Amino acid sequence: MRLNQYISSSGFCSRRQAERYITAEKVRVNGEIASHVYFVQDHDLVEVDGHKIKHISEHIYIMLNKPSGIICTASPDIAHNIIDFVSYPKRIFPVGRLDKETEGLILLTNDGSVVNELMKEENNHEKEYIVTVDKLITDTFIADLSNGVDIYNPRKKDYSRTNPCPVLQIDAYTFRITLSQGLNRQIRRMCRRFQYTVTHLQRVRIKHIELGSLDLGQWRYLTEAEIAELT
User: Fold this and answer.
1) For the segment 2-61, what is each residue's pLDDT rounded down to a tens digit?
2) In terms of domains, do 150 and 193 share one?
3) How far apart are CA 106 and CA 99, in angstroms?
4) Less packed terminus of the chain by CB within 10 Å, N or C?
């Protein structure tokens, strides 16, 4: 098994983070600094930043209805982190993130290959949200959101155009939106562009996985059918 895949399948971190460790020369195999092209054998001893890595064959897939106030990080040094909140007995990590204030569906796993697949922007996986704003919704606002919005992207320090997307009004202050992008705080920035402020944001679907009736703050295992369609 390729080294980055071996590390991620252990549940230590995602495949992308494993690649960063390898580049930083923080991965050793049998005591020697390892390269990206290394393929792990059964007898090899793998260490990442001083931690021994043990490959596991049993993968864990969890969906959580995240409450507001929980931070989507695996770092134990950050208060109210999602790992402490779930308190699962084995090592898992979140797939992507939701803003601290945002509620709803987020996946957690120890399968780094799934993280890699779902996080690739070019795969255009749909994510669906229900959004409540602070003033009456107009037809023009819905149309403008649907057609794409120029929003400031702090990572690129430039403006980015959001892709056209389905937007459906639910009531006077609430709408449903489906995105295939993952720009930072995208929905909040899209609304702000038209002088609307998001007062409540909930993710209800990732690809084929729906939040359904799962209570806020509760989690469950994915079903076999849900897992089969993840990649």
Assistant:
1) 898 788 777 788 778 889 999 999 999 999 999 988 888 878 899 999 988 876 657 899
2) yes
3) 11
4) C
Q: What is the pLDDT of residue 112?
A: 78
Domain identity same for 75 and 95: yes
Residues 73, 137, single domain; the answer is: no
Which residue among 44, 99, 158, 215 is the active-site one? 99
Judge if 196 and 217 occupy the same domain: no
99 catalytic residue (yes or no): yes
Antiparallel, parallel or unpaired: β 167-169 and 174-179 = antiparallel
Highest mean pLDDT among 67-81, 164-178, 213-227: 164-178
Q: Where are the beta strands (DSSP E) in the chain?
A: 27-29, 32-33, 46-48, 51-53, 61-66, 93-94, 103-109, 127-133, 150-153, 158-161, 167-169, 174-179, 198-206, 209-210, 219-221
For residue 176, list its beta bridge partners: 130, 168
- The SS3 call for residue 73 is coil
- Supply the range of the domain harboring residue 172: 126-206
- Residue 38 sits in a domain whose CATH number is 3.10.290.10
Q: What are the two backbone dihedrals, phi and then psi, of residue 114, each rounded to the nearest 5 degrees?
A: -70, -40
What average pLDDT does the chain have? 90
**Residues 92, 142: one domain?**
no
